[in-house]
Amino acid sequence: RIIAVSRHGPQGSRSRDPGVMVHEHVSSDGLMSLIGEADYIVVAAPASTSNVGLVDARVLAAAKPGAYLV
């Protein structure tokens, strides 16, 4: 199951590739409620100042034991 998290969620201005099967798409506000379900946390964000701290100690602490950060 793939859960996408983006700054503005599915209502954001960027269109999502319809060829990528996403089961759920939430805004970054929903990250903490879903992070504990993830086996893999994949960060695919540009290395910009606005993304510094995107995955911080609070997010890692909420992840389930054994989850991988990619």
Q: Your description of this structure?
A:
This protein is of the alpha/beta class. 14% of the residues lie in helices and 17% in strands. It is built from two helices and four strands, in the order ββαβαβ. It has helices at 31-34, 57-62, and strands spanning 3-6, 24-27, 40-41, 68-69. The strands form two sheets. A two-stranded parallel sheet has the order 1-2. 3% of the residues are buried.
Supply the key terms.
globular, alpha/beta, 70 residues, two-stranded parallel sheet, single chain
Task: Describe, in short, the structure shown.
This protein is α/β, with parallel strands linked by helices.
- Tell me the total number of β-strands: 4
Distance between the termini: 16 Å
Q: Given the structure, what is the number of helices?
A: 2
Largest sheet: 2 strands, parallel
Please list the strands of the largest sheet in the order they lie side by side: 1-2
Mean pLDDT: 88
Low-confidence stretches: none
Estimate percent helicity.
10-25%
Radius of gyration: 12 Å
The structure class reads alpha/beta
Q: What are the secondary-structure elements, in order, as H or E?
A: EEHEHE
Approximately how much beta-strand content do the residues carry?
A: 15-25%
From the spread of the alpha carbons, the general shape counts as globular
